[in-house]
Design goal:
By secondary structure, the protein is an alpha/beta fold. Strands 5-4-3-10-9 form a five-stranded parallel β-sheet. Helix 2 packs parallel to helix 3. It starts with 6 loop residues before the first strand and ends in a 26-residue tail after the last helix.
């Protein structure tokens, strides 16, 4: 998007409304190619799975994704308790020189990766109290989304469907309720499968979309990253433009009926 329609999170404005993960790519070089094609400014990093300095003997993601070009969003992927999530993000803060913008996710089941909301709420409160800017992965429950906002999370990130499922937005009505009530940015997180899913999320009024598997798992990740960039822009533009209302069983001609040119036939 243009600079005049940027995404503002925790007081900082970003040009792109597409946030992209850094996992599941062939290697770090392909990761960087996909990130460049996506146009993303914010990229997520799974602290428990990706080396950003924890192991000096291993290749570091930071060699390919420099912090002067991208805003890193450390996340707690793989954490199943509030305590583990808090410890992980404290480590990220140390590794990244007091970095405060983080993505919290506390999972409840290793098979479906559905969020554990009691533990998520607990971790969110601790992190906000410690001065973190918390973007939080959650269920599409409007009540619990409101609770997270009340705690002080800087962005609410309801799932569209299960992580990595590619099923798209399964409950647009709940998502709409969350968007309507929430004053901080709302970003769809998890479940996007293809470009049309991203466009629909933006058309519904989401402030942004975060994805990883939909790009990294594509046959051509770099091309899919470009497609997702365009889809997010198109969906945002459509939302701002305002779609025509749906009219069941009522048609409306594209051209006005009045003043039709008629042709007379003489014998």
């Amino acid at each position: 998007m243009t600079d005049t329609d940027g995404l503002t999170i925790a007081g900082k404005t970003y040009r792109s409304r597409l946030l992209v993960g850094t996992g599941k790519y062939r290697d770090f070089a392909q990761t960087r190619e996909a990130l460049d094609a996506s146009g993303a400014d914010i990229v997520t990093v799974a602290i428990r799975r990706t080396n950003i300095g924890q192991d000096a003997n291993q290749e570091s993601l930071l060699d390919y994704v420099p912090t002067d070009r991208f805003t890193l969003l450390p996340n707690t992927a793989g954490c199943y308790s509030a305590d583990d999530a808090v410890r992980t993000l404290r480590l990220a803060r140390e590794l990244l020189d007091d970095h405060r913008l983080v993505k919290l996710e506390v999972l409840g089941d290793p098979n479906n990766l559905f969020p554990n909301m009691p533990e998520t709420l607990k971790a969110a409160k601790t992190l906000v109290d410690e001065g973190f800017d918390v973007m939080v992965y959650c269920t599409d429950d409007p009540i619990q989304a409101r609770m997270l906002e009340d705690i002080g999370c800087c962005a609410i990130m309801p799932l569209a469907s299960l992580i990595g499922s590619g099923m798209g937005i399964l409950n647009p009505w709940n998502l709409g309720l969350i968007i309507e009530q929430t004053k901080v940015p709302v970003l769809v997180d998890a479940g996007v499968g293809t470009a049309s899913d991203a466009a629909i999320a933006m058309e519904l009024g989401c402030d942004g979309v975060l994805m990883n598997t939909a790009i990294a798992g594509a046959k051509d990740p770099v091309l899919m990253a470009s497609a997702m960039k365009n889809a997010v822009i198109a969906g945002r533009q459509a939302h701002l433009a305002g779609r025509i209302p749906r009219q069941i069983y009522v048609g409306s001609p594209s051209s006005p009926m009045a003043g039709l040119i008629t042709t007379s036939h003489s014998k």
